[in-house]
Amino acid sequence: MSRTLLQDPGLWKEAALIGGQWRTATPHGHSPLINPADGAVLAQLPRCQEAETTEAINAAQAAWGPWRRTPARQRAALLQRWHELITAHREDLATLITLEEGKPLAEARAEVDYANGFVRWFAEEAQRVRGDLIPAGQDSQRLLALRRPVGVCAAITPWNFPAAMVTRKAAPALAAGCTVVVKPASQTPLTALALGELAHRAGLPAGVYNVLTGADTGRIGGVLTRHPAVRKLTFTGSTEVGRLLLRQSADTVKKCSMELGGNAALIVLDDADPDRAVEGILHAKFRNTGQSCIAANRVLVQAPLHDTLARRLAERCRALRVGPGLEPGVQIGPLIDDAAVQRLEALLAEAVAGGATVLAGGRRHALGGRFFEPTVVAGVRPDMQLAREEVFGPVLPLLRFEQDDEAIALANDTEFGLAAYLFSRDAARIWRTAEALETGMVGVNTGLISNEVAPFGGVKQSGLGREGSHLGMAEYLETQYVCWDGLAPAA
Ligand SMILES: NC(=O)C1=CN([C@@H]2O[C@H](COP(=O)(O)OP(=O)(O)OC[C@H]3O[C@@H](n4cnc5c(N)ncnc54)[C@H](OP(=O)(O)O)[C@@H]3O)[C@@H](O)[C@H]2O)C=CC1
Ligand SMILES: O=C(O)CCCC(=O)O
C-alpha cells in the first residue's frame, strides 16, 4: 500500500474537499489513479460532476464574505502557518508527487520548496495590498481607488507540477481575500488534497479551499466556467484547452489568467561558455523528464560550437540514470502516460524519416512501461513536428544556425511565446537578442528561471497574465473607484 510510505498517513486523501468536508463518495462512482512508474492503481478518487462542482462553488461563495473581511494580517498569519506545515511535511508531499507524477524524489522535494515559496511570498504580499488617493479636480472631492478581492476563483491545474501549480494560484487568491475551487489534473490529485488537509490544519476556514476530484473533467469544467458566482478562472495547461475554457468563460465575462503551451528556443551563440551552455541545456531540457511548458523545446546552436556541444550533450544524456522516481539516484522518471510515450515515438520517427540523426537514446527504455531514453537528435529542421510541437519529454532536438538574426527569426517563428533561453558572454549581443525574443520570459546563461519572486507567464498564444511576483497578486484583485464628493471647503 503506497499510503504506508507516508510518515503521516492523514495526508493521504481519497476524497474531494467541499466546504470543509471530505467527500469519500459521490453518486457517480470512482476514478482510478495510476502510478506512472509501474502502472499500478494508487488510489480511487470519487467522481465529482455538475452537482458536486456547484456545491463547491456555493461553499466557496459562502466562505468568501467572512474571508474577505478577515484582516490582511490574520489572513497572512494563516498562510504563514500553512507554509510551516508544508515545510514540516515536505517529505510526505514529495513522496506523493513522485508517486502520482513520476518525477525523481529529489526533484519532487525541490518542487515542494518551490510550491511553498509561493505560500510564503503571498503571505507576505497579503499585507501590502494598497489602493490610491487620486488628486481630484475639485476641492470638494476625494477620489479613491480601492483594491478588492475578485471573488470565488476556479483554479484548473496540470499534472506536471502537482504542488507548485496549485499554490502559485491558490496562495495569491487566498492572500487577496478570494476563495478557491481547485480542479487538479485527474492524474495528480493527491498532492492538491494533501495541501487541503494542511490548509485545514493551519486553520483556514471551511470552504476557503475546495478540491474537486475524478475524471469527469468536461462536466466539472463546464460548471466552473459557466457559473456566475465564479468571478475568476486561472488555468495552466495546453493552449487547446485554454482556448476552450476562455470560450466557455465568455458568457459570464470572467477575469481569466492563462498559462498555456510553449515552444521554448534555447539559443547558444558562438561566444558562449560551452560548459555553462551544456549544464543550462540539461537543466532546461530534462527538468521533470522534459515535461514542462518552459522546457527547452528546440536547441539552436551557432555553427562553430554545434558539433562540440552535440557530442558533449550526447555523452551526458547517455549517462543520465533512468528509473522509478523513488529509487535513489534516479534523474529521469517515467512519462505521465502511454500516450506520451507514443507521441514521442511518432515525433522522432517523423524527424528521422526527414533526415535527422539520433545521437543518443531514441527509443523506449529497456525498463519498459512509460520510460523513455534521454535522447539527442541533430539535424532537426524548423518545419519538423519535433521543432513545432511541444515535445513534453526527454528528447532534445538540435538545430544549427549561422547568423544571430537567423536564430531570432527561428525562435520567434511559432504561435507560442512563453520562454526562451540564451547563452553568450557578450553583453551587447545578449541585450539585442533578448529584446528581440517574443516571449514572456528569457533565461540568460541559465536553464532554470522559475521562482516565486519572478513574474511567470507568456505572450502570444502562451497565455494571459502573470503568476508569482508582486504582479501575481494583482490577478486576484479588482479596482473599485470611489468618488467622494460634498466635502465642505476648508475654513
Ligand atoms: N501541463 C502544462 O503545463 C502544459 C501542458 N501542455 C501540453 O498539453 C498536453 C497535455 O497536458 P496537460 O497538462 O494534461 O494539459 P491539459 O490542458 O489537457 O490539462 C490541464 C488541466 O486542464 C484540465 N482540463 C482538460 N480539459 C478540460 C475541460 N474541458 N474543462 C476543464 N478542465 C479541463 C485537465 O483535467 P484532466 O487532468 O482531468 O484532464 C487538467 O486539470 C501536454 O502533453 C503538453 O504537450 C502545454 C502547456 C503546458
Ligand atoms: O506549465 C508548466 O509546465 C509548469 C510550470 C513550470 C514552472 O513553474 O517552472
UniProtKB/TrEMBL annotation:
Positions of the catalytic residues: 259
GO molecular function: succinate-semialdehyde dehydrogenase (NAD+) activity
An annotated GO BP: gamma-aminobutyric acid catabolic process
Key words of the record: Oxidoreductase
A Pfam family annotated for this UniProt entry: Aldedh
InterPro entries: Ald_DH/histidinol_DH, Ald_DH_C, Ald_DH_CS_CYS, Ald_DH_CS_GLU, Ald_DH_N, Aldehyde_DH_dom, Aldehyde_DH_Superfamily
Residue ranges of domain Aldehyde dehydrogenase in the record: 25-482
Family: Belongs to the aldehyde dehydrogenase family.
PANTHER family assigned: SUCCINATE-SEMIALDEHYDE DEHYDROGENASE, MITOCHONDRIAL (PTHR43353:SF5)
Descriptive protein name: NAD-dependent succinate-semialdehyde dehydrogenase
